[in-house]
Write a structure and sequence with these properties.
Blueprint lengths: L1 H10 L4 E10 L5 E7 L5 E2 L1 E4 L6 H13 L2 E11 L5 E3 L5 E15 L9 E8 L12 H10 L8
């Protein structure tokens, strides 16, 4: 997160608009991959913020590899999310209004290895049995995916 870290040196914890991407990795059992985040001790989607010059699809590929060890064979655009529901204050005080583009990944390769700086573990969960402690900005994305995309692939 070089770009955001550099901005933070200038603006402190003030709210920033943060663009990024997340990846809903779906296995053959229709389970979604989540990571148990170190910063807020909640389960969250794979993803992160955009660096200067990147496309959102490049962000998704990079974050997937960095956070899970997996390489996407293909990514399918789901939706872009923004607004008040995507305001978040990190435990250390930084405030953001996220603009998140979500991608679905059903074909991937590699061995699952979590990023030890960001998460304590990775685990697949059934879409109808998600953990209670989901990272707040990921809740509306997961809810939208379950209702509008998981059962009807023609929607994306």
């Amino acid at each position: 997160m070089g770009y955001i870290k550099d901005l933070r040196k200038e603006v402190g914890t003030r709210p920033l608009i943060m663009c990024g991407a997340c990846v809903l990795v779906i296995n053959n059992h229709q389970q979604v991959l989540l990571q148990l985040r170190i910063d807020n001790e909640c389960w969250g989607l794979i993803g992160g913020s955009m660096e200067l010059g990147e496309t959102l699809e490049q962000v998704a590929h990079r974050e997937l590899l960095e956070e899970t060890g997996l390489t996407a064979k293909n990514l399918t655009l789901i939706n872009t999310y923004s607004g008040q529901k995507f305001y978040y204050q990190y435990p250390h005080g930084d405030e953001v209004y996220n603009v998140v583009t979500a991608f679905e990944c059903k074909e991937y390769s590699g061995l699952l290895i979590h990023d030890q700086e960001e998460a304590t573990m990775l685990q697949f969960f059934s879409l109808n049995d998600l953990p209670k402690n989901i990272s707040p900005p990921d809740i509306p994305i997961l809810e939208d995916y379950i209702v509008n995309y998981s059962k009807n692939p023609s929607n994306h």
